[in-house]
Amino acid sequence: MENLSFKDLTLSDEVQRAIVDMGFEEATPIQSQSIPYILEGNDLIGQAQTGTGKTCAFGIPAVEKIDPQIDSIQVLVLCPTRELAIQSCEELRNVLKYKDGIRILPVYGGQPIDRQIMALKKRPQIIIGTPGRVMDHMRRRTLKLEALKMIVLDEADEMLNMGFREDIDTILEKVPEDRQTILFSATMPKEILELTKKYQKDPVHIKIAHKELTVPSIEQYYLEVKESAKLEVLSRLIDTNDIKLSLVFCNTKKRVDELTASLQSRGFSAEALHGDMRQEHRDKVMSLFRKGNFDILIATDVAARGIDVDDVEAVFNYDLPNDEEYYVHRIGRTGRAGRTGKAFTFISGREMYKLRDIQRYTKSTIVPMKPPSLNEVEEKKMLNILKTLKENLKDESISKFVSHIERFIDTINNESEEQGENFVTSLDIAAALLKMYGEQSGNLPSEVNEIDNAVEPGSSKDMVRLFINIGSESKIQPKHIIESLVASTGLPGKLVGAIDIFDRYSFVEVPKDFAPEVMKSMKNYTIKGKRINIEKSNARKKSGRGSSFNRSTPPNRRSPKKSK
Q1: What distance in Å separates the CA atoms of residue 365 and residue 220, rounded to the nearest whole number?
Q2: Is 17 left (phi over 0), alpha (psi -120 to 50) or beta?
């Protein structure tokens, strides 16, 4: 069965508008097959993996079934964890964005129950919660389900694995018999079948085959970046990676247009591609991109289907995709025909939860990285200017300019002698011309927005500080530590963080995901002829001669702090 467009589903105008704002154009397989049945009032078993769009598969019809005139709980969704409850609540809030009078509330353990009791007095119609906390409210009579129309068991197999069977039985036995029961589960063990037989009425069983998601052999990175810094980070990544052709993916058409305009205003050669453009225009844009007439194509997932360009060097997920399969499709646009490619994904806030799902189901490692610094951007642009300069040195016509430079130097030095100032050399003149050229061409920005404080708060938690029992007395330098890490673990050298070297020991930062492997592989490893011990450092600073460790030092600034 082909996936349906949301426009083909019988949905209210308010929900259709919300779906457009969310950036969805086409329903996922589980959504295409589930939504019509749920809207008709059928009980349903949905067998699909995490990350396939299950929340909207039940959330969209659930919102459509709510009567805003009734101030009672009409939909109850049970989830295995507080994280999933919060995430599902946020997604349903997006769905009911234009629906007036509908209130939604998550209830879960770990949050003060009196706060939830106060919120329940505002009469929400949708409750999303964990079984234990829902049971607690039912016992207190603060959660009344007499008017319930629909109950959803999301990730039912996980709830059973976590020991919630008794709670689920109690809840299902106390809700109205004429309610609609929806169950989603990745697997169908015996206990799930018992639940469906006992509590559902002639359920429709929809099974979405989980494809083995494989990704190309390309370098995959993610950056934790605030929304306000995404444009600056994208610009720096493009500037520092010598990328000729790249694809940037956004989740909405509006976002595509806004980003295209922003990049063009910064001097980048970029064009947009999305579903609101006429087919003739889209064909023209694609033709120009294939010919390399512009460098950056910014697109939505649906509009990018059928893009077949072998020379794409990098893919940027400006917005994290809504489905893990979209991630695979996106990054599969690079690294083609035996070429290498890179994929950069921007995440913020709770999107780390989704990123872990993508890594789990694609069986790939997406490596954390920090945005390029201003120094790196300017250094790269300077190298490009010097490369152009080197090519111009081969041009014989430059000889006619030599006499101009010689006369200019003589004039300047005569003036300097009269005024008692230092003489200038041809090297000084070359440096001044280089600075002028860079600023006038825009290759050396005189002012660039700094983003050191625009990285997501807490991103430093992705680095782990390790202690090594060898220091400057053993003639250790940062390069020795980096070389050892790379040789023993395969960790890319550019991901090594700040390094502090003291007399008899050192500290090094590595990405949290690599820390266990680093400690295992480097146990009894030899550096400069000395067998080392490596372990997580204490939270407190260690005493000793040498300068203190600076946690804010970015990975590419390795300044060994020598003892005094």
Answers
A1: 7
A2: alpha
Name the packing angle between helices 54-65 and 13-22 (round to 10°): 150
What's the domain range around 280? 219-372
Q: In this structure, are 382 and 362 located in the same domain? A: no
**CA–CA separation, 336 and 308 (whole Å):** 9
SS (H, E, C) 467-490: EECCCHHHCCCHHHHHHHHHHHHC
Each residue's pLDDT tens digit, 510-534: 888 788 888 888 887 888 888 888 8
**Which of 320, 347, 372 is where one domain is finished?**
372
Which of 441, 472, 489 corresponds to the end of one domain?
A: 441
Q: Does residue 555 sit within a domain?
A: no
In a domain, 453, yes or no: no
Type of residue numbered 489 = T
Q: Are residues 315 and 200 in the same domain?
A: no
8 Å CB contact between 481 and 447: no
Most confident of 82-86, 129-133, 437-441, 475-479: 129-133
Q: What are the tens digits of pLDDT across the range 65-91? A: 999 999 999 999 999 888 788 888 989
Whether residues 428 and 468 share a domain: the answer is: no
Query: What are the distances in angstroms from CA 145 to CA 134, 171, 182, 294?
Result: 11, 10, 16, 59
Tokens of 211: 């494809």
- Which 3 state secondary structure label does DSSP give 283? helix
Q: What pTM was computed for the model?
A: 0.48
One domain, residues 249 and 356:
yes
Positive or negative, the CA dihedral 103, 106, 107, 113 is negative
Quickly tell me which residue has 């921007």 as its tokens.
346
CA distance 284 to 276: 14
> Using CA atoms, how far apart are residues 232 and 249, in angstroms rounded to an integer?
16
Number of neighbours of residue 248 by Cβ within 10 angstroms: 24
Same domain, 238 and 342: yes
Residues 511 and 396 in one domain: no
233 and 90, same structural domain?
no
Place of tokens 């280089």: 434
Is 335 in the same domain as 383?
no
Strand partners, 500: 507
Residue entry with tokens 């659930």? 62
